[in-house]
Amino acid sequence: MLLNRRIVVGICGGIASYKAVDLVSKLQQTGALVDVILTKHAEDFVRPLTFAAVSHRPAYTDLWEASGQAAEMHIVLAEEAEVLAIVPATANTLAKLAHGIADNMLTAVALATQAPLVLAPAMYRDMYTHPATRANLALLRERGAHIVEPEVGRLASGAIGPGRLPETAVLLGAISQALGRNGDLAGRKVVVTAGGTREPIDPVRYVGNRSSGKMGFALATEARDRGAQVVLISGPVALDAPYGVELHAVETALEMRDAVRGATLDADVLIMSAAVADFRPAAPAAHKLKKEGRAEQGIAFDAQGGFTLHLVRNPDILGELAAAEDSGKSLGDEGKRQKRLVRVGFAAETSDLVSYAQGKLAAKRLDLLVGNDVSRSDSGFGAETNKVLIFHAAGGMEDLPLMPKQDVAAAIWDRIVPLLR
Predict the structure, then answer these.
(1) Structure confidence at residue 104 (pLDDT)
(2) Where does residue 334 rank: exposed (0-12), middle (13-18), buried (19+ CB within 10 A)?
(3) Which residues, at least 6 apart from 263, have a Cβ–Cβ distance to it below 8 Å?
(4) Please, how many CA atoms are within 13 Å of residue 293, restricted to the half-sphere of its CB?
(5) Are 224 and 233 in contact (CB under 8 A)?
(6) Are 344 and 274 in contact (CB under 8 A)?
(7) What is the pLDDT of residue 391?
(8) Is residue 206 within 8 Å of 288, Cβ to Cβ?
């Protein structure tokens, strides 16, 4: 997504400017072409040579240097930039941007560029909450600037409150989202499910599976980077929500079904990559079961101290959606769906992958089904790579090579986009 993209990063004179070094380094590692502009006071915190070293390109500072090259270069940077990200954005620079002041190289480039503007404010708590700063941010947001809200936490002054610069992953997400605003999913709403579900046995135990959620999160991130409005419905995972994605956290299959029902009413695409439990305990115990426990509804103890659970079937979310579409209604909705929902399923198998996947594709009347053999160490739950087969409703199967999950996500969306046309 960032390979060969032209990104200008502006650095203002705030204590958080040192964090921007990691951002520029990470951008360069993705293959982006990164030009850095420092304000005069930013140089008091981090030297231009540091940014030149990590970006592998010159770092710009003084608009008024004697040769006149910087004055000429600010127009080149403004015209070639695909996004201008100011990290950190101080209260002083925000005020200049809001009122069209261009008295240094950074603000001159900002005034001259047509590229989207990403602003990451970072400052002392009371400066951020001051009415003047809030008004400036509101004005910039109204003009189309993308504001990355600061985090709440301990500031350099020792105070606690809003004003911390977000972590690099958040900033990268904001830049990627800005770059993809006109992508092939722009104007589309997509719903992605991820992770596994947990079906309670008692308040501390559950029936679950090994799904990490990495594939679903990669799919959600890729959709965001193509311009989509993304709703990510996730079971319990150890992953941070991708920036710019609407996350709905659920635990059980029933909770996931309800979330999918609501989210898909006006959606264009649903990708069910979550590993939803097929069964759940019929009657979870209200209290923690003890080893020397007594029989409860749905739970029978034997003479050896073991117990037997009575399991019941969970709803088939994709099957219910197919039935609802056949009836001309949205799932859980009294009216008719305004647009067709493209449905994509996943089949994680340990044997007979092709036959099981083809059966699921037909039974649930899916547009695509992605199958993978989770018994493989390089393609199972928790792996960073995936080896998938893609089955098409129109017929045919594609055998994709082993790839990082983000590349698999891109390949899946490449096959969904034509279905939307």
Answers:
(1) 94
(2) exposed
(3) 191, 231, 233, 248
(4) 17
(5) no
(6) no
(7) 95
(8) no
DSSP state of 363: H
Mean predicted lDDT score pLDDT of the chain: 91
DSSP bridge partners of 385 = 404
pLDDT tens readout for residues 326-337: 766 655 544 455
Residue owning tokens 């997504």: 1
Q: Which residue in this structure is represented by tokens 């990691």?
A: 22
Question: Cα separation of 235 and 233, whole Å?
Answer: 7
Angle separating helix axes 405-420 and 214-225, nearest 10 degrees: 50
Sequence-distant (≥ 6) Cβ neighbours of residue 44 within 8 angstroms: 13
Structure-block tokens of residue 370: 């992605």
Report the distance separating Cα 54 and Cα 9, nearest Å.
13
Whether the bond between 88 and the residue before it is cis, its omega within 30 degrees of 0, is: yes
Torsion angle defined by CA atoms of residues 411, 173, 189 and 196, in that order, rounded to the nearest 10 degrees: 70
Phi, psi (deg, nearest 5) at residue 60: -105, 145
Q: String of b and e for 341-359 (b: at least 16 CB within 10 Å)?
A: bbbbbbbbbeeebeebbbe
Residues 6 or more apart whose CB falls under 8 angstroms from that of 165 comprise: 16, 19, 87, 88, 120, 122, 150, 151, 171
Known catalytic residues are 209
Is this model's pTM higher than 0.85 or not? yes
Compute the radius of gyration of the chain from its Cα atoms: 26
What is the average pLDDT across 106-127? 96
Sequence-separated (6 or more) residues with CB below 8 Å from residue 271: 190, 191, 192, 193, 216, 219, 344, 346, 412, 416
Structure tokens at 17: 């400017």
